[in-house]
């Protein structure tokens, strides 16, 4: 449990830092320094290996940190949406565990809400047409 807590803290801190313009500038400066040192090292394989290895390792590690942060954000958003559904009188409480449904059931519900949206658009269009004909 302590490891998970530490990892979550690390992931959040890293995500905040790497999403910061300062971090981008630091990394861009590092790449520029690397590029400028190319002639010094005769653009050797070792010189190229430095950037290739560094970016590969950082990318590999960042995938896990980003996924952790995204999972936490998604879970938090899901809980907030569940609360909004729960407290709304007109809400369909069936939707509280939507993420647990099978794909076919999700498709059925999606189609139901798309149909409701089409009906609402058609109703709005009829109202607008009624207002326009009343203005003439």
Automatic annotation (TrEMBL):
Superkingdom per UniProt: Bacteria
Transmembrane helix listed as a keyword: yes
InterPro entries associated with the record: Iron_permease_Fet4
Keyword entries, A-Z: Coiled coil, Membrane, Transmembrane, Transmembrane helix
Pfam family of the protein (one): Iron_permease
TM regions (residue ranges): 21-41, 47-66
Chain coiled-coil ranges: 92-126
Protein name in UniProt: Low affinity Fe/Cu permease
Annotated organism of origin: Pseudoxanthomonas sacheonensis
